[in-house]
Amino acid sequence: VINAGKSQHNEDQACCEVVFVEQRPSPRGWLSSREGSGELDGGRKGLYFHYWALFDGHAGSGAAVMASERLHLHICEQLRDLVEILQDPSPPPICLPHNTETDSADPNHMSYAEDHGEVLNDAVPQIHLEKAVSHESLVIGAIENAFKHMDDQIERERASQHLAGGCCALAAIYLMGKFYVANAGDSRAIIIRNGEIIPMSREFTPETERQRLQFLALLRPELLGKEFTHLEFPRRIQPKELGKKMLYRDQNMNGWAYKKIEEDDLKFPLIFGEGKKARMMATIGVTRGLGDHDLKVFSSNIHIKPFLSCFPEVRVYDLTQYEHCPDDVLVLGTDGLWDVTNDKEVAGVVMEVLTSYEPNDPCRYTMVAQELVVRSRGVLKERGWRLANDKLGSGDDISVFVIPL
Amino acid sequence: VINAGKSQHNEDQACCEVVFVEQRPSPRGWLSSREGSGELDGGRKGLYFHYWALFDGHAGSGAAVMASERLHLHICEQLRDLVEILQDPSPPPICLPHNTETDSADPNHMSYAEDHGEVLNDAVPQIHLEKAVSHESLVIGAIENAFKHMDDQIERERASQHLAGGCCALAAIYLMGKFYVANAGDSRAIIIRNGEIIPMSREFTPETERQRLQFLALLRPELLGKEFTHLEFPRRIQPKELGKKMLYRDQNMNGWAYKKIEEDDLKFPLIFGEGKKARMMATIGVTRGLGDHDLKVFSSNIHIKPFLSCFPEVRVYDLTQYEHCPDDVLVLGTDGLWDVTNDKEVAGVVMEVLTSYEPNDPCRYTMVAQELVVRSRGVLKERGWRLANDKLGSGDDISVFVIPL
């Protein structure tokens, strides 16, 4: 991490851990019925995951600090019920009995029409099969719910712990041969494999989530407090333009069309601005993350949180599917890095630095991370921090993990 | 088209037209202010587009027939106000005056904070720029709104015209050097260029649109009529399973997790089934299209239409960006084709048939379409229509356009 000097305490926070997930004790029920399998040794049953995460705080470091201390514990907690299921190669059970009775659901009892005592016809097909659910999707579900529990904990403890602000969260979990990369916010992860760039996340901003946000605003107009319109306009409309035709788009549209300006269109657009300057409700530039429970529109009583999602998008990379060389890495970075250094430049630095060290030098990955951060910060000149190309360096905290595959 | 014999009148309908878009007369205002430009000749001002579309009807052919007769006219209507703007290389105007007064908006008046007489700070960045809107995105907006107007017309005229059912709509519009491919439903378009497959659409089904549908159901539970739950389960839950733990996912999740089964979970899931058998509200397998205004859940008063979207996704292919050979084509097909013949097989047939004709034989593209349809139908044997690999042929109407690029 490099602190940009915006705040005394880093707004970027990070965590790197090896976590042991101990199977939850289960005196009876599904687990005991399988106890004779002998797959696991007599000690404490469980599994390990490796964990790296970056938290880019805003409006204070409180949420970022707490998330960096706890998110992996929430992931561990969500995985505790899955230890035996994940280690069993057979498909995960759809239903777990809560007591000793055996699971005897009739898989043929499944049609809406049957329930209603009607004769089946073409419009109501009979569906007999169970949907297959993979082990991988259980891990994804566990990570998704862990983010939700983390957000709930920040909400509960924000008063007593004096937690200010919110944070983006980007986490990489290595479990049973696969990397799970979970992202909520505008940090980014890429894999560089044999010089090729494989995106492992996408950014969640007012622009990328426009249609979700506009849809919510349309269905729950009371959340806009009469100050905002759910329509997007390319610029603010002035009262004297009433009756003219203006370009707009709504929650259904990706293109633009003209509409006659009405009174309601004079409100401020829910989504406004472009690129790094895009804001939701004129306030925030990221639309997923943790915290922000008290965030309101400037000098108003309109809450932002209902529009924010704490759920990450999780992408999976199966390490066993590819051959990897010592120069193949997973790079995690906050927007302080990516705002000034693009994927290709990062891949260039990775290859340049790694090839300048012996393949078995344990420091080479650390040196890449350091080089990425230093280059993105730039050098202090008379006209501020400047990059090698004389453009302005990142004015933001910069954090990077470089993880060999 | 091959009629599968499910209905006397084809449920698949098609249209292929060259359409002239005549500029809307505008005696005063923005258009007259530019009249001296002399870009256009003295005759009727306008532009042409080429148009191909497939409409796959369900529960009757009425909506499909009407859409095949009218959708291109709605697209034409939406484009009429854009004729001059699209032909002008300068960026489209953000605002059009409705009278002779000139556009004099102050681009610096745009900040939420300024409006509220507050001092600016970090949280409320000042945004001064207009968003750039491309010509292309105006065409996309015009097509999107044309689909909406088409759907509205079906709603208005369904009683007097005896229009039954609904339809998927897939349209390819060639305008000013670009193909715009608009899809609402489960038809599909691909480009085959130099043997490479370029997807030009994606399907909209209960599975691909699950999160949008669950989000709507969560925010508007009254639309579910107490019969459905917005949660997804891998199979139907039985009353005696109350209290057990079942896999589920909600509108935020892509993975699965276990939850304790409660009373409310015994309702039928909004989204149920897998692949071609996935249904929304146990009724319909496509979630975008035209019509279906009267569609209800079997033997209930629950309307399906609020969950359906009539808006297409529009993808753009710029013909001027690539070199094309006479074997490069755009293929449009209804699901009757794609259910039994995948992208790669279609590309194989295209190449096989095209190379068996002289490059300048005008029939060669028609022969490809015919071959695709006939192969997907199969041959009538004792055990029904069979494909070359002895699998069952498509039991659905099959329609294909093969369009040289």
UniProtKB/TrEMBL annotation, chains A, B:
It holds the Pfam family PP2C. Residues 1-405 form the PPM-type phosphatase domain. GO terms for molecular function: [pyruvate dehydrogenase (acetyl-transferring)]-phosphatase activity. GO terms for cellular component: mitochondrion. Transmembrane segments: none annotated. SMART domains: PP2Cc. Gene3D superfamilies: PPM-type phosphatase domain. This is Protein phosphatase 1J. It comes from Corvus brachyrhynchos.
